[in-house]
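Long-time lurker. I teach an intro course on protein structure, and each term I like to show students one example going from raw sequence to a predicted 3D structure in token notation. This year I'd like something fresh instead of my usual example. Would anyone be willing to generate the tokens for the chain below so I can use it in lecture? Attribution to the forum is fine with me.
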Amino acid sequence: MTTPPHSPGRLPAFNMSLTHVTLPSAQVQVNRLTDQINEFILGTSVVVIVLSTVTDPAETDFDRSHFTWPTWQGETIPEAHQKWKAVFATRDRTFRGLYYERPTLEETQTYRVPNTVLSEAMWKMLQNEPCAILCTGLTGDPSAAEITTALEEGTLGAVLVEALFA
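-- Reply from a regular --
Happy to contribute to a lecture. Here you go:
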């Protein structure tokens, strides 16, 4: 599932694709998100939000500072990040966007996307594990194969974030 990029002139200009991944973990892993603990066991499926820049970031005045996340090693769960949140609406089971929580509400940055309806399987994943993985490192509108290749090659940066339901 791919959402259209933001309107021209609004930076950053992203395509946001929703997919899912089954994390091949050999052990239970725990990541703390606010007051909850998420335990992942072998074969856990998680919603992944792929933020791919519309064009090469080197060609724009794109500020990468918020998106400098650790390299995602496909065999592990990405590190938890407290300030990023993924927003979903329960009424129509849609992905609404992301926000980066700053010290004040005025400084908090919101990245809205056109409502993207989640598949039944993805919605169930969010109900079981109220979190998502945000990842960057791709350009354009990557295919599932390109996402898999980037994960295998270690070129994706990623964090585990809390899923908020509006």
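Some talking points for your students: Strands lie at 2-3, 14-23, 29-33, 36-40, 44-53, 80-89, 94-100, 109-117, 131-139, 157-165. The chain has a mean pLDDT of 75.
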